[in-house]
Amino acid sequence: SLVVLFGATAGAYGAKLGSDERELILLVWQVVDLHSKKVGTLHKSLVKADNLDLSDQCHEVSGLTPEGLGKAEPLDRVLQQFSQLVSSDLKVLGKSSYTLCSDGQLLIRQVLHPETSKKNFLLSDCFYSFYDLRKEFHTCYPSSATVKDQTIKTMAEYLGLGTDETEEDFGVWQVKTMVAIIFSMLSESCNHIFTEPETVKYKYETGPCSKSETVDSETVIRARGLPWQSSDQDIARFFKGLNIAKGGVALCLNAQGRRNGEALVRFVNSEQRDLALERHKHHMGSRYIEVYKATGEEFLKIAGGTSNEVAQFLSKENQVIIRMRGLPFTATQEDVLGFLGPECPVTGGKEGLLFVKYPDGRPTGDAFVLFSCEEYAQNALKKHKEILGKRYIELFRSTAAEVQQVVLNRYMSTPLIPTLPTPIIPVIPPPYTIATGSIRDCVRLRGLPYTAGIDDILEFMGDATADIKPHGVHMVLNQQGRPSGDAFIQMKSADKAFMVAQKCHKKMMKDRYVEVFQCSGEEMNFVLMGGTLNRSGLSPPPCKLPCLSPPAYAAFQTAAVIPAEAALYQPQALLPTTRTPQASAAAPPTVTYYPAQAAQLYMNYTAYYPSPPVSPTTVGYIAAPPGAVAAAATATHTPILPQPGALVRMQGLPYNTGMKEILSFFQGYQYAPDDYNGLIQLSDQARSVLQAPKEWVCL
């Protein structure tokens, strides 16, 4: 038996059903016995929505009113009545089982499943399997219109059935016509058999992904704007009703190993992906989520793994993964199992633990744990911030993709997501410098398409490009090295900047309008260094100076090239001046560096992400580039030992450590004498640059 089902929401109708997150307000259904070709009673039930404000289209098409819907039952009670009435009709027809049949997939996948998931009640099993009448009709009549272009009306017209919708109430005509279409398909001339229903997955299946897999780009999307604490299960719930591929949720991490609010999701086919794109700007809690197309290559970059240890750890399928942070470096597997206790047994005992280590084998204080069920995982999460040894331990939900990203990141000793662009070379002599001061001779472009380049900006500016200073276009990058949607342009005068802001404000670039504001060089530098500029004024960046690049990206020649962020400041900022009888010479002028391939200046723009409690930093020791040290030595005439390795850095010192304790620590080793000039305590400014608290540098 089939139960022919039709529904409508308070918003969009037809091909856009469910795309606006509006609630269900109408259900109409009828039981059909495929063998005897008998039908049960036709039922129509209004549904009381939380928001009774109907769209104009809904009011015009359905004729329903808020007053009438206010007297209806809520969705959970309507679904209970649906089950009871269907069971009664089946008994009358002498049947016991049935499958739903709907006009397309939107009602089941895009309306019922997402709405019930948000309202926290479960759908009965019958809603996880259904026939798509459009697909069945096209199978039966291959010469008809494509599945995407089918409607109840076009199918009825193809069969020569009556199409006067005004004869019946809204919903009733649709169900009766669907039943007539089904009977035509069952006729002797067609003899259609309903054999392969559409299915909806009950739950998301976790699992590893190999880099050798082939991922179809037509099945992948990028979700942006996710809450920091969201897990793969939360994302699967957001896409409830759509079938996500096994292990198809990959949470993205930034270069520091923290979740950046994005995820790549892989679906079982392109049809599911297209439905997912219709959920653009749907809500997860109070946040709206942006959904865009992505590629299979991007998915494999995040989710793919090659480590045998990780593959073995993730080989146990359908496990709940918990991440532990802050473990003592001496913690053993027995210590972790004892900490978790018997109330949350780990899958496979010691085999269900994976400690994260640096490439040299040192522990990082992170570990991943497998649990066989949600109950055990919840018990483990209750131990969040309990004490192990002398440290409190943080526990968070995690994913298979995060395991691969974090562990492989440690093994590779470089971030999976690069934070800097391609290597840069100096331009000598330096004729162009970054603007400073309060003169408002710059403009800020906000809301640029992420695909926009310098050529697009110049085309957008039109005739005003003649008034741009050479090398005056600065694209603002986020912490992943990608365009942030902002750019700054240095104009030849404040008047020119004012004219551009007036002429180009809210002008369209591609499919987006771009806001253009006049600003000063000082304001531009604030934003380029990680601060914010809005109607409330300037908010300073999270630190006064940008952080130096990790070793993997600091492979510069000592004599000629230093990173752009170092070039923006006088070399004295890198290392403080030590006590020396010689007078310090005047510092040489700052050199500005430009990319090798374009006239675009890459600033070390630090996007200030709040530290979420989900992913600790993955960058350990950060060294000053040798070119920066050499520049500091030249500027201050400080004798720097030329031998490699002569400069060492101490991390983890107690805050009350003095010179005497450090000298005692290095007893037996020869350090630079000269009244202990070799000891340099880092100032707050230099500490910001070197990104490490409580440190000394010894020569």
UniProtKB/TrEMBL annotation:
Keyword Repressor: no
Compartments reported by the entry: Nucleus
MF (Gene Ontology): RNA binding
Protein name: Epithelial splicing regulatory protein 2
A single GO cellular-component term on record: nucleus
Source organism per UniProt: Eudyptula minor (Little blue penguin)
Keywords recorded for this protein, A-Z: mRNA processing, mRNA splicing, Nucleus, Repeat, RNA-binding
Record family assignment: Belongs to the ESRP family.
GO biological process: mRNA processing; RNA splicing
Record gene name: ESRP2
Major location category of this protein: nucleus
Residue ranges constituting the RRM domain according to the UniProt record: 219-296, 320-400
Gene3D superfamilies per UniProt: 3.30.70.330, Ribonuclease H-like superfamily/Ribonuclease H
